[in-house]
Specification:
Radius of gyration: 23 Å
Shape: elongated
Strand order of the largest sheet: 2-9-4-5
Strand content: 15-25%
Order of helices and strands: EHHEEHEEEEEEEHHH
Number of strands: 10
Number of domains: 2
Length: about 230
């Protein structure tokens, strides 16, 4: 995986737009374009089921009778974007996959009480606003692991780096060149076509990072260990 600095990316953008010696688009403006384009590439990868390129995890402990937990407190890097999965350590040291509750079911499980009944079919979570909420309310201190997709990298200083995956930074370069030339009111049709081809390539190539075998159909009834706990979803 190649690493490029903001300064290097900016140079590539200026070269592609044929603006190497022009400040018609200032460095600050171009930095803004670059970060916009990086965010767009980030979303393409996430929406193409390539979210595991970025997935991170963090653990925290619940508090008895506390239903909601601020994401800014859980994710101390302050880079939370989307949930990938939520686990809870129950029945000793076993991790269990938790299911999301539908919003209209927010009051459905409030009287089930405990979290550690074998099968844990009553434990649910949901992101509501800037909080992670649980039903039923945790009955004690429980370790929870949040798997999440972070926000796109933001480059500020010239020495800030971006991890380029297989040359996909070219998408950012082309997209920025389009923005630069649009400001100049120049013809960008060739670059728009190139951007579309790059997008198709990235969407196709990023969908299965483990090239050894394709993804299998997801068994939604086998989230946890059937051997010990049976099916955890009905």
């Amino acid at each position: 995986m190649a690493t490029l600095t903001l300064s290097e990316i900016r140079t590539r953008c200026r070269e592609r737009a044929d603006m190497e010696s022009s400040q018609f688009v200032t460095d600050d403006e171009l930095n803004f374009y670059i970060n916009q384009s990086i965010s767009e590439l980030h979303d393409i990868l996430v929406q193409s089921y390539g979210e595991d390129y970025y997935v991170k995890n963090v653990s925290f402990n619940t508090v008895a009778q506390q239903e909601a937990y601020s994401l800014s407190t859980i994710v101390t890097d302050d880079d939370f974007y989307k949930v990938r999965a939520v686990d809870a350590k129950l029945n000793g040291n076993d991790w269990f996959t938790l299911r999301k509750f539908n919003f209209n079911e927010r009051n459905k499980f409030q009287h089930f009480g405990v979290w550690d009944t074998l099968g844990i079919s009553n434990v649910r979570y949901r992101i509501v606003g800037s909080e992670l909420r649980f039903v039923p309310v945790p009955d004690r201190d429980i370790t929870v692991r949040l798997w999440y997709i972070p926000r796109a990298t933001t480059l500020t200083l010239d020495a800030d780096t971006y991890d380029d995956i297989n040359g996909w930074i070219e998408y950012v370069v082309v997209d920025c060149a389009i923005k630069m030339l649009n400001k100049e009111e120049s013809d960008v049709r060739v670059l728009l076509n190139e951007k579309e081809l790059l997008k198709r390539r990235i969407e196709t190539a990023s969908s299965n990072r483990d090239a050894s075998e394709p993804e299998s159909i997801q068994d939604i009834y086998a989230e946890n260990d059937d051997f010990f706990y049976g099916r955890t979803r009905s």
